[in-house]
Amino acid sequence: MIQFENVTATYADDVGIFDLSFHIEKGEMVFLMGPTGAGKSTVLRTIYKDILLNDGSLYIDGQDITDMRSRKIPYYRRKIGMIFQDFRLIEDRTVFENVALPLNILGLPNKEIKSKVSEILEKVGLDSVTKMRPSQLSGGEQQRVSIARALVKDPVVILADEPTGNLDPNVSDEILDLLELATNNGTSVLMSTHNFPLIRPRKKRYIELSDGRLVQK
Ligand SMILES: Nc1ncnc2c1ncn2[C@@H]1O[C@H](COP(=O)(O)OP(=O)(O)O)[C@@H](O)[C@H]1O
Ligand SMILES: [Mg+2]
Protein backbone atom coordinates (compact mmCIF):
# COMPACT_ATOMS: atom_id res chain seq x y z
CA MET A 1 0.00 0.00 0.00
CA ILE A 2 2.89 2.33 0.84
CA GLN A 3 6.20 1.57 -0.80
CA PHE A 4 9.38 3.62 -0.48
CA GLU A 5 12.24 2.66 -2.79
CA ASN A 6 15.52 4.42 -2.07
CA VAL A 7 13.71 7.69 -1.42
CA THR A 8 15.75 10.83 -0.81
CA ALA A 9 13.98 14.15 -0.18
CA THR A 10 16.01 17.09 1.09
CA TYR A 11 15.54 20.70 2.13
CA ALA A 12 19.27 21.36 1.93
CA ASP A 13 22.38 19.29 1.18
CA ASP A 14 22.44 17.17 4.33
CA VAL A 15 18.97 17.91 5.74
CA GLY A 16 15.96 15.70 4.99
CA ILE A 17 15.46 11.96 4.47
CA PHE A 18 17.98 9.76 2.67
CA ASP A 19 17.77 6.49 0.74
CA LEU A 20 14.70 5.19 2.59
CA SER A 21 13.22 1.85 1.55
CA PHE A 22 10.29 0.24 3.35
CA HIS A 23 6.88 -1.22 2.68
CA ILE A 24 3.56 -1.04 4.52
CA GLU A 25 0.77 -3.50 3.73
CA LYS A 26 -2.90 -2.82 3.19
CA GLY A 27 -4.62 -2.64 6.59
CA GLU A 28 -1.32 -2.53 8.47
CA MET A 29 -0.58 -0.08 11.29
CA VAL A 30 3.05 0.97 11.49
CA PHE A 31 4.75 3.50 13.72
CA LEU A 32 7.42 5.92 12.60
CA MET A 33 9.80 6.42 15.50
CA GLY A 34 12.67 8.79 16.14
CA PRO A 35 13.64 11.94 18.03
CA THR A 36 12.77 15.47 16.93
CA GLY A 37 14.48 16.26 13.63
CA ALA A 38 14.84 12.59 12.62
CA GLY A 39 12.71 13.09 9.49
CA LYS A 40 9.32 11.67 10.55
CA SER A 41 7.24 14.61 9.30
CA THR A 42 9.27 14.68 6.10
CA VAL A 43 8.38 11.03 5.38
CA LEU A 44 4.66 11.82 5.86
CA ARG A 45 4.92 14.96 3.73
CA THR A 46 6.45 13.03 0.83
CA ILE A 47 3.45 10.67 0.89
CA TYR A 48 1.06 13.63 0.98
CA LYS A 49 2.91 15.11 -2.03
CA ASP A 50 3.79 18.17 0.02
CA ILE A 51 7.47 17.99 -0.92
CA LEU A 52 9.30 16.65 -3.94
CA LEU A 53 11.63 13.66 -4.08
CA ASN A 54 15.24 14.19 -5.14
CA ASP A 55 15.68 10.53 -5.86
CA GLY A 56 14.02 7.11 -5.57
CA SER A 57 10.41 6.01 -6.15
CA LEU A 58 7.22 6.16 -4.14
CA TYR A 59 4.15 3.99 -4.71
CA ILE A 60 0.82 4.46 -2.92
CA ASP A 61 -2.12 2.10 -3.47
CA GLY A 62 -0.41 0.68 -6.55
CA GLN A 63 0.07 4.13 -8.06
CA ASP A 64 3.51 5.57 -8.85
CA ILE A 65 3.30 9.04 -7.29
CA THR A 66 7.00 9.85 -7.66
CA ASP A 67 6.56 12.42 -10.43
CA MET A 68 2.85 13.13 -10.17
CA ARG A 69 1.81 16.34 -11.95
CA SER A 70 0.73 19.08 -9.57
CA ARG A 71 -2.73 19.35 -11.14
CA LYS A 72 -3.38 15.72 -10.18
CA ILE A 73 -2.35 16.15 -6.54
CA PRO A 74 -5.69 17.43 -5.14
CA TYR A 75 -7.49 14.40 -6.57
CA TYR A 76 -4.81 12.04 -5.22
CA ARG A 77 -5.10 13.57 -1.74
CA ARG A 78 -8.74 12.51 -1.47
CA LYS A 79 -7.57 9.05 -0.57
CA ILE A 80 -5.16 10.20 2.15
CA GLY A 81 -6.36 11.16 5.63
CA MET A 82 -4.05 13.53 7.54
CA ILE A 83 -4.02 13.95 11.32
CA PHE A 84 -1.81 16.46 13.13
CA GLN A 85 -0.66 17.09 16.68
CA ASP A 86 -2.45 20.46 16.74
CA PHE A 87 -5.75 19.06 15.31
CA ARG A 88 -6.14 21.87 12.70
CA LEU A 89 -9.89 22.20 13.05
CA ILE A 90 -11.90 25.17 11.84
CA GLU A 91 -12.78 27.11 14.99
CA ASP A 92 -15.93 28.86 13.77
CA ARG A 93 -17.53 25.66 12.51
CA THR A 94 -19.29 22.98 14.53
CA VAL A 95 -17.95 19.46 15.02
CA PHE A 96 -20.43 18.23 12.41
CA GLU A 97 -19.38 20.91 9.90
CA ASN A 98 -15.68 20.17 10.41
CA VAL A 99 -16.21 16.50 9.63
CA ALA A 100 -18.57 17.24 6.72
CA LEU A 101 -16.06 19.55 5.03
CA PRO A 102 -14.18 16.92 2.95
CA LEU A 103 -17.51 15.59 1.66
CA ASN A 104 -18.79 19.08 0.84
CA ILE A 105 -15.65 19.58 -1.21
CA LEU A 106 -16.34 16.32 -3.03
CA GLY A 107 -19.83 17.63 -3.82
CA LEU A 108 -21.79 14.77 -2.28
CA PRO A 109 -25.57 15.17 -1.83
CA ASN A 110 -26.53 16.67 1.56
CA LYS A 111 -28.51 13.63 2.62
CA GLU A 112 -25.55 11.35 2.03
CA ILE A 113 -23.22 13.75 3.85
CA LYS A 114 -25.54 13.84 6.85
CA SER A 115 -25.76 10.06 7.19
CA LYS A 116 -22.03 9.49 6.61
CA VAL A 117 -20.93 12.16 9.08
CA SER A 118 -23.40 10.97 11.73
CA GLU A 119 -22.17 7.41 11.33
CA ILE A 120 -18.50 8.39 11.71
CA LEU A 121 -19.17 10.71 14.67
CA GLU A 122 -20.91 7.86 16.44
CA LYS A 123 -17.99 5.55 15.67
CA VAL A 124 -15.50 7.93 17.32
CA GLY A 125 -17.83 8.59 20.26
CA LEU A 126 -18.76 12.18 19.49
CA ASP A 127 -22.45 11.85 18.69
CA SER A 128 -23.43 13.98 21.71
CA VAL A 129 -21.28 17.00 20.79
CA THR A 130 -21.98 17.41 17.07
CA LYS A 131 -23.22 21.01 17.43
CA MET A 132 -20.31 22.23 19.56
CA ARG A 133 -17.31 24.25 18.43
CA PRO A 134 -13.80 22.79 18.72
CA SER A 135 -12.88 25.23 21.53
CA GLN A 136 -15.66 23.76 23.70
CA LEU A 137 -14.07 20.32 23.58
CA SER A 138 -11.15 18.66 25.39
CA GLY A 139 -7.92 17.97 23.48
CA GLY A 140 -8.79 14.29 23.18
CA GLU A 141 -12.22 15.13 21.78
CA GLN A 142 -10.73 17.58 19.30
CA GLN A 143 -8.36 14.88 18.08
CA ARG A 144 -11.35 12.56 17.67
CA VAL A 145 -12.93 15.21 15.43
CA SER A 146 -9.82 15.32 13.28
CA ILE A 147 -9.79 11.50 13.08
CA ALA A 148 -13.46 11.57 12.05
CA ARG A 149 -12.63 14.16 9.39
CA ALA A 150 -9.92 11.84 8.03
CA LEU A 151 -12.11 8.70 8.19
CA VAL A 152 -15.13 10.23 6.50
CA LYS A 153 -13.30 10.11 3.15
CA ASP A 154 -12.80 6.32 3.42
CA PRO A 155 -9.05 6.88 2.94
CA VAL A 156 -6.71 4.12 1.78
CA VAL A 157 -3.98 5.60 3.96
CA ILE A 158 -4.06 7.57 7.20
CA LEU A 159 -1.00 9.63 8.05
CA ALA A 160 -0.90 10.75 11.66
CA ASP A 161 1.90 13.15 12.61
CA GLU A 162 2.47 12.91 16.39
CA PRO A 163 -1.31 12.82 16.94
CA THR A 164 -0.91 12.25 20.68
CA GLY A 165 1.77 14.90 21.23
CA ASN A 166 -0.64 17.21 23.09
CA LEU A 167 -2.58 14.55 24.98
CA ASP A 168 -2.43 12.73 28.33
CA PRO A 169 -1.28 9.10 28.27
CA ASN A 170 -4.72 7.51 28.78
CA VAL A 171 -6.31 9.78 26.17
CA SER A 172 -3.41 8.99 23.82
CA ASP A 173 -4.16 5.32 24.19
CA GLU A 174 -7.80 5.88 23.19
CA ILE A 175 -6.64 7.76 20.09
CA LEU A 176 -4.42 4.81 19.18
CA ASP A 177 -7.41 2.48 19.64
CA LEU A 178 -9.38 4.53 17.12
CA LEU A 179 -6.54 4.55 14.59
CA GLU A 180 -6.12 0.82 15.00
CA LEU A 181 -9.86 0.35 14.45
CA ALA A 182 -9.51 2.10 11.09
CA THR A 183 -7.27 -0.71 9.86
CA ASN A 184 -10.23 -3.13 10.04
CA ASN A 185 -11.57 -1.57 6.84
CA GLY A 186 -8.25 -2.13 5.07
CA THR A 187 -6.92 1.37 5.70
CA SER A 188 -3.16 1.50 6.27
CA VAL A 189 -2.06 3.73 9.15
CA LEU A 190 1.36 5.33 9.43
CA MET A 191 1.76 7.24 12.67
CA SER A 192 4.80 9.19 13.78
CA THR A 193 5.72 9.52 17.43
CA HIS A 194 8.74 9.86 19.67
CA ASN A 195 6.86 8.18 22.52
CA PHE A 196 8.09 4.58 22.57
CA PRO A 197 6.40 3.64 25.89
CA LEU A 198 3.04 4.57 24.31
CA ILE A 199 3.37 2.26 21.31
CA ARG A 200 5.36 -0.62 22.80
CA PRO A 201 2.34 -2.50 24.29
CA ARG A 202 0.68 -2.63 20.85
CA LYS A 203 3.41 -4.91 19.50
CA LYS A 204 3.21 -3.34 16.05
CA ARG A 205 6.01 -3.01 13.58
CA TYR A 206 7.87 0.28 13.81
CA ILE A 207 10.28 2.05 11.52
CA GLU A 208 13.03 3.92 13.30
CA LEU A 209 14.69 7.00 11.86
CA SER A 210 17.80 8.87 12.91
CA ASP A 211 19.15 11.90 11.03
CA GLY A 212 16.87 11.10 8.08
CA ARG A 213 18.09 7.51 7.72
CA LEU A 214 16.63 4.14 8.67
CA VAL A 215 18.12 2.71 11.84
CA GLN A 216 19.21 -0.79 10.89
CA LYS A 217 18.25 -3.53 13.34
N1 LIG B 1 10.66 23.34 5.79
C1 LIG B 1 11.90 22.98 6.13
N2 LIG B 1 12.98 23.65 5.66
C2 LIG B 1 14.23 23.30 5.99
N3 LIG B 1 14.54 22.27 6.81
C3 LIG B 1 13.50 21.58 7.32
C4 LIG B 1 12.15 21.88 7.01
N4 LIG B 1 11.34 21.01 7.66
C5 LIG B 1 12.15 20.19 8.34
N5 LIG B 1 13.46 20.51 8.15
C6 LIG B 1 14.62 19.81 8.72
O1 LIG B 1 14.60 18.47 8.21
C7 LIG B 1 14.99 17.55 9.23
C8 LIG B 1 13.88 16.55 9.47
O2 LIG B 1 12.77 17.27 10.00
P1 LIG B 1 11.36 16.60 10.33
O3 LIG B 1 10.98 15.71 9.21
O4 LIG B 1 10.43 17.72 10.66
O5 LIG B 1 11.70 15.73 11.62
P2 LIG B 1 10.73 15.13 12.75
O6 LIG B 1 9.33 15.22 12.25
O7 LIG B 1 11.22 13.74 12.99
O8 LIG B 1 10.94 15.99 13.96
C9 LIG B 1 15.34 18.39 10.45
O9 LIG B 1 16.73 18.61 10.43
C10 LIG B 1 14.56 19.68 10.21
O10 LIG B 1 15.20 20.76 10.85
MG1 LIG C 1 7.70 16.19 13.01
Small-molecule components bound: adenosine-5'-diphosphate, magnesium ion
Order of helices and strands: EEEHEEHEHHHEHEHEE
Q: Return the average pLDDT rounded to an integer.
A: 96
What is the 3D shape? globular
Q: How many helices in DSSP terms?
A: 7
Largest sheet: 6 strands, mixed
The low-pLDDT segments are none
Number of E-type strands: 10
| Straight-line N-to-C gap | 23 Å
User: Biggest sheet, strands in spatial order?
Assistant: 6-7-8-3-9-10
**Helix content estimate:** 25-40%
Strand content: 25-35%
Radius of gyration: 17 Å
- SSE-based structural type: alpha/beta
Question: Which key phrases capture this entry?
Answer:
217 residues; alpha/beta; 6-stranded mixed sheet; 4-stranded antiparallel sheet; binds adenosine-5'-diphosphate; binds magnesium ion
Verbal overview:
With 217 residues, the protein is an alpha/beta fold. 32% of the residues lie in helices and 26% in strands. The chain is built from 7 helices and 10 strands. It has helices spanning 40-47, 73-77, 95-106, 110-123, 139-151, 169-182, 196-199, and strands spanning 2-12, 15-24, 29-33, 55-60, 63-64, 80-84, 157-161, 188-193, 206-210, 213-214. Strands 6-7-8-3-9-10 form a 6-stranded mixed beta sheet, sandwiched between helices. It has a 4-stranded antiparallel beta sheet with strand order 2-1-4-5, with helices on one face. α6 links the parallel β7 (157-161) and β8 (188-193). α3 packs across α4 (110-123), α3 (95-106) runs parallel beside α5 (139-151) and α5 (139-151) packs parallel to α6. The protein is globular, with a radius of gyration of 17 Å. The protein binds adenosine-5'-diphosphate (ADP) and magnesium ion. The site of magnesium ion (MG) has 3 residues, from α1.
